[in-house]
Sequence to fold (267 residues):
Amino acid sequence: MGLGKQVRLNRIFSHSSGRLCSVAVDHFVGYAESLPPGLANLPKLLAELVPERPDAVTMQKGTALTCWAPFAGQTAMIMQSACFTTDERILEMLTSPEDCILHGADALAIAIGVRGPNEGKFIKHLAEGVSAAAKYDLPVIAHIYPRVFDQNGVRIVHDADNIAWATRVGIECGADVIKVGYTGDVASFRQIVESCPVPVVAAGGPKAETLLDALNIMQQVVASGARGATIGRNIWGHANVRAALRAFKAVIHDTVPPVEAAAAAGA
Fold:
């Protein structure tokens, strides 16, 4: 690993626990028909998040260019390249490694879907992104989502077999960090994490019924040996964004039990 990549990864995994508690605000075309209230005002959302010091924030290039300047350098910034919908109605890459370097990002995130008619195209996008980023010693964080296409439509799935395949795709494409959904079972997720030669972090998952439910899942993620998580709607979808982030940080970084973490955070 080159020095540049090591420096950038160290900024992302800066906590003494070695685990990542980051927030994603990179949601774009997936919410074209119904934008959640928590994402409606990005400057306001970032102003709530950054003072609580997440380890990183993942965003699209446009968000970085228009919203990030007041917070630049206060926490790691990860720039998302992908722009796709689960059903593949949209399937594009919007951001290059050069964009990341120019605008000060610490890593390039590339989200892809696996299983489905365009799986090969997605895999190629990731592999080409890794190759392009290597010229700049820029880490690539692969966000990999297995899907099922059936008579009920398209949905993202989190069973162990599909998550294991998603992780293998990230390995074979050369990603530096692989973000996948939690399998729902500590033993199966631990097996995936232990078989992966690069850090595995969990996706924050669908919106949980309560914050405590989401924190309980995160406690299991930590118990599996994963290197933390990137959370979206279970933080910005909460009525108290700052408190939710504090609670997740306590569970991920300090292994505080969820009930105690939520209470201490005021959530």
